[in-house]
């Protein structure tokens, strides 16, 4: 079982008798510190998608499907192509990557886990954290070094991350792929 | 008010059940009690309000007997419950769990059985969430939550925009307020009723219902230096501890004496009042300091300037919620006044005493434009439909 708060793109959960792949997660905070998790899910039997909301502590059955360690190879619109250690290639629909697509870039070395359902590659899970270079961000306004003042930054691949104000263009930053949050400058 | 034993109405097929767990004294129960009354008054819906803590509830409904598990007030069936007790529950048309309170497993099991045997009779299950002005609320409002049991629950988010669940506001509330505020004798009569006879119509009057904060002391010091007579009216609650600290006395002493005077400043400790009385208190003051969710909203309907002492959250997340509200509230306010008011609220919530003093002085000088804005704000905030009407429409369309 996993809580809604622990889910991340690529996980497959069982709801109402159907397997659903998590395409996107968005965690926010309601009153009194309670987490609210909004999920975009794809039904693997019906090929339909839905948006749904859970309390952060809601528990759900995650399905352990076949997985393979792979590395990203290339993008052939609309498929991301991954390759295992034996040079077998697997196509994953861009839509199924959800938020994870923002961290997939040419030449990335991190191992990803490709998940299979009935022999078909259906999703990809990234490592918990990845390191990416900041390609654009505004200069710090007042030289804040506390890490509490935040600003948007564009990273390699075109994704946007909210970073501490002291982060500069060219810095490499660690990002939590589950939440999309900036962790630290490396 | 009709007060007769809870009747067979509790088991009508189209009744609504609202479940509430009291977390602090007046917030959760304040919101659900207002909603229940409004659904009965304006939509003639039979409502069962399930409350775990009748003692807290009795503070805002003095007629309530905390030891009676089933009672009937203002057309609402009030039923005491707790998670571990056996609950005699008959599913109706709608089941509202307020603020994500956890329903007893026996009720969930009942719903699961009903889904298997008679799915059309499963009530629409709604989680009524906390009020927030943050952008993400629009994207989460009214989304289903697919439960592992096969049941479906909907997240209903109150909010300040047309794409959210709206705000609790009774149909004739603003007209009642206008009528009340039109005649200064109304407020003087209310103050006299509260045991305060020496407030003059031209005196400055502020109500104070906050969490504990040293910022209160800063405001008292400010009023002490002014020549105009000021009155601070304090309903019993956490603000008293801060006042006691500032006056170097005990809370018990405050409650016993009820009235303290420092130069031209009078501090009055008020007896507990019901929601109707609290609304009138807010309408009667020049400025209100409020907290949490229920009093925060009622202060907006009062059409008077206010400070929101927001419920503190981990990692200062409450400041994000405060900023989100201030952004919406200040949208049509002159930037220099908006900035001062926002900075005052931030300083008050962060116990930044120097800034509280600085920005309070500025706001004091800008009172009239702030008042004008506060008067206009409820119409903007409601966006043509209050929470109850949107909720009833949501149920009809689901």
UniProtKB/TrEMBL annotation, chain A:
SUPFAM superfamilies the record matches: Nucleic acid-binding proteins, Translation proteins SH3-like domain
Q: Which SMART domains match?
A: EFP (SM01185), Elong-fact-P_C (SM00841)
What is an annotated GO biological process for this record, any one?
peptide biosynthetic process
The UniProt record lists the Translation elongation factor P/YeiP central domain at 67-122
Per the annotation, which location comes first and is thus the protein's main one? cytoplasm
Q: Which Pfam families match?
A: EFP (PF01132), EFP_N (PF08207), Elong-fact-P_C (PF09285)
- According to the entry, every stretch annotated as the Elongation factor P C-terminal domain falls at 130-185
Which GO molecular function, any one, fits this protein according to its record? translation elongation factor activity
**Where, subcellularly, is it found?**
Cytoplasm
Give the pathway listed in the UniProt entry for this protein: Protein biosynthesis; polypeptide chain elongation
Q: Offer a single GO CC term for the protein.
A: cytosol
Write out the entry's keywords from A to Z.
Cytoplasm, Elongation factor, Protein biosynthesis
Please state which protein family the record places this protein in: Belongs to the elongation factor P family.
Q: Which PANTHER family match?
A: ELONGATION FACTOR P, ELONGATION FACTOR P (EF-P) FAMILY PROTEIN
Q: What does this protein do?
A: Involved in peptide bond synthesis. Stimulates efficient translation and peptide-bond synthesis on native or reconstituted 70S ribosomes in vitro. Probably functions indirectly by altering the affinity of the ribosome for aminoacyl-tRNA, thus increasing their reactivity as acceptors for peptidyl transferase.
This protein's name: Elongation factor P
TrEMBL record, chain B:
User: What Pfam families would the database entry show?
Assistant: EarP
According to UniProt, the name of this protein is Protein-arginine rhamnosyltransferase
Task: Tell me the name of the encoding gene.
Answer: earP
Q: Which GO terms describe its molecular function?
A: protein-arginine rhamnosyltransferase activity; translation elongation factor activity
Q: What does this protein do?
A: Protein-arginine rhamnosyltransferase that catalyzes the transfer of a single rhamnose to elongation factor P (EF-P) on 'Lys-32', a modification required for EF-P-dependent rescue of polyproline stalled ribosomes.
Ranked from the top, the taxonomy reads: Bacteria, Pseudomonadati, Pseudomonadota, Gammaproteobacteria, Alteromonadales
Q: Which domain of life is it from?
A: Bacteria
Give the matching InterPro entries.
Answer: EarP
Presence of the UniProt keyword Cell division in the record: no
Q: Which reaction does it catalyse?
A: dTDP-beta-L-rhamnose + L-arginyl-[protein] = N(omega)-(alpha-L-rhamnosyl)-L-arginyl-[protein] + dTDP + H(+)
Family the entry assigns = Belongs to the glycosyltransferase 104 family.
The residues forming the signal peptide are: none
């Amino acid at each position: 079982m996993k809580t809604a708060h622990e889910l991340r793109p690529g996980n497959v959960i069982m709801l109402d008798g159907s397997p659903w792949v998590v395409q996107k997660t968005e965690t926010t905070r309601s009153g009194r510190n309670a987490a609210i998790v909004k999920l975009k899910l794809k039904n693997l039997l019906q090929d339909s998608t839905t948006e749904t909301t859970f309390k952060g502590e809601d528990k759900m059955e995650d399905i352990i499907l076949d997985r393979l360690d792979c590395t990203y190879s290339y993008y052939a619109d609309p498929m991301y192509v991954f390759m295992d250690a034996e040079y077998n290639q697997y196509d994953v629909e861009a839509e199924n990557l959800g938020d994870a697509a923002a961290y997939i870039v040419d030449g990335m070395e991190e191992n990803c886990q490709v998940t299979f359902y009935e022999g078909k590659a259906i999703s990809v899970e990234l490592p918990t954290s990845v390191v990416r270079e900041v390609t654009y961000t505004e200069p710090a306004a007042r030289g804040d070094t506390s890490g509490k003042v935040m600003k948007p930054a564009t990273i390699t691949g075109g994704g946007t991350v909210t970073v501490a104000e002291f982060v500069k263009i060219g810095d490499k930053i660690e990002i939590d792929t589950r939440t999309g949050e900036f962790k630290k400058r490396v | 008010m009709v007060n007769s034993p809870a009747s067979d109405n509790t088991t009508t097929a189209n009744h609504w059940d609202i479940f509430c767990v009291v977390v602090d004294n007046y917030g959760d129960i304040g919101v659900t009690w207002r909603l229940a009354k409004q659904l009965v008054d304006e939509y003639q819906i039979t409502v069962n309000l399930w409350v775990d803590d009748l003692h807290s509830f009795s503070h805002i409904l003095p007629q309530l007997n905390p030891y009676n598990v089933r009672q009937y007030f203002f057309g609402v069936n009030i039923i005491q419950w707790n998670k571990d007790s056996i609950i005699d529950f008959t599913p109706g048309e709608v089941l509202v769990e307020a603020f994500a309170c956890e329903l007893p497993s026996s009720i969930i099991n009942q719903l699961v059985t009903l889904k298997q045997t008679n799915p059309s009779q499963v009530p629409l299950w709604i989680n009524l969430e906390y009020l927030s002005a943050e952008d993400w609320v629009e994207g989460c409002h009214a989304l289903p939550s697919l439960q592992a049991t096969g049941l479906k629950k909907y997240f209903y988010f109150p909010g300040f925009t047309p794409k959210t669940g709206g705000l609790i506001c009774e149909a004739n509330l603003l007209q009642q307020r206008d009528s009340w505020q039109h005649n200064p004798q109304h407020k003087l009569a209310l103050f006299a009723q509260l045991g305060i006879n020496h407030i003059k119509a031209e005196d400055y009057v502020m109500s104070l219902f906050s969490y504990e904060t040293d910022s209160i002391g800063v405001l008292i010091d400010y009023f002490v230096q002014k020549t105009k007579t000021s009155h601070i009216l304090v309903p019993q609650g956490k603000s008293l501890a801060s006042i006691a600290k500032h006056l170097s006395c005990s809370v018990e002493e405050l409650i016993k004496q009820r009235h303290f005077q420092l130069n031209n400043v009078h501090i009055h400790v008020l007896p507990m009042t019901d929601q109707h009385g609290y609304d009138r208190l807010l309408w009667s003051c020049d400025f209100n300091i409020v907290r949490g969710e229920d009093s925060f909203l009622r202060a907006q309907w009062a059409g008077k300037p206010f400070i929101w002492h927001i419920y503190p959250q981990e990692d200062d997340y409450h400041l994000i919620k405060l900023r989100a509200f201030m952004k919406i509230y200040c949208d049509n306010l002159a930037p220099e006044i908006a900035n001062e008011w926002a900075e005052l609220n931030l300083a008050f919530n962060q116990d930044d005493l120097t800034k509280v003093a600085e920005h309070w002085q500025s706001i004091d000088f800008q009172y009239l434009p702030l008042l004008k804005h506060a008067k206009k704000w409820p119409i903007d905030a409601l966006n043509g439909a209050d929470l109850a009407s949107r909720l009833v429409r949501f149920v009809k369309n689901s």
